[in-house]
Amino acid sequence: MAVLELKDVAKHFGAIRALDGVSLTLEPGEVLGLMGDNGAGKSTLVKIIAGNFPPSHGEMHVNGKAVHFHRPIDARESGIEVVYQDLALCDNLTAAANVYLGRELRKGVWPFRILDYNAMYERSRALFAELKSETRPRDLVRQMSGGQRQAVAIARTRLSNSHIVLMDEPTAAISVRQVAEVLQLIERLREQGIAVILISHRMPDVFEVADRVAVMRRGRKVADKKIADSSPEEVTALITGALEAA
Fold first, then answer.
1. What's the pLDDT score for residue 211?
2. CA separation (Å) from 210 to 44, 170, 242?
3. 89, 170, 173, 174: which one has the fewest Cβ atoms less than 10 Å from its Cβ?
4. Domain boundary assignment for the chain
């Protein structure tokens, strides 16, 4: 069963058609590369999946169940997590504090409940171990590399019972070594059966880690095929409009 299925999803902002009849499926443990030029509709599609926007038309199913998200928390409760491009991390806090930001663990009895730092450190350490990351729970985020910051953001998605992780340009503006770290983190999610939608402009990253690639252009999906059946040249032609569809 597909973990995510979109059927004829459209989004209109007044007279502007940001999305026009997009259908998409995502299997458990599958990495889907979502590509397209700026304004192609990638961000709008992801925001609909993440519960930021309701679709103007169409259906969405998660694990075979029809869903209607009104807020991001609705998507999270259905097992969908997002790693945004800016990561939304607090530089002055530790890795563990960022993993649990807004979801802190507490102990004691009200009104004497306090933060359970030890439990948060231990769970964060286990999450980083699962991801095979060298990130340590007590390290301050401001002292971390780009790859370690991504590990913190990805570990946060594993707190809940997530089935789908949406990643927005995770390898933008980081070094070659850190790019390799992030791609390995995506592999770890796939090994755990988590489906990933990887939004990226970096062709080598998509062709290295994705199972399928979907290409958006002017609000429409113009291609959706296995990586093995495509090529960077074909995807570039689809993005620019030199090729209408594939």
1. 97
2. 21, 14, 23
3. 173
4. 4-88+160-240
Q: What is the tens place of the pLDDT at every residue in 179-188?
A: 888 899 999 9
Q: How many CB atoms lie within 10 A of CB 214?
A: 23
Helix (H) / strand (E) containing 218: none
pTM of the shown model: 0.90
State which H helix or E strand residue 157 sits in.
Answer: helix 146-157
Give the Cα separation of 73 and 83 in Å (integer).
14
Pairing label, strands 31-35, 212-217: parallel
7-16 contacts at long range (C-beta below 8 A, 24 or more positions apart) = 7/58, 7/59, 7/60, 7/61, 8/57, 8/58, 8/59, 9/45, 9/48, 9/55, 9/57, 9/58, 9/59, 9/60, 10/55, 10/56, 10/57, 10/58, 11/44, 11/48, 11/53, 11/55, 11/56, 12/56
Regions of the chain with pLDDT less than 50: none
Q: What single letter denotes the amino acid at residue 161?
A: N
Distance CA 176, CA 189 (A): 20
Largest alpha-carbon pair distance within the chain? 65
CATH of domain 4-88+160-240: 3.40.50.300
DSSP 8-state secondary structure symbol assigned to residue 211: S
pLDDT for position 178:
83
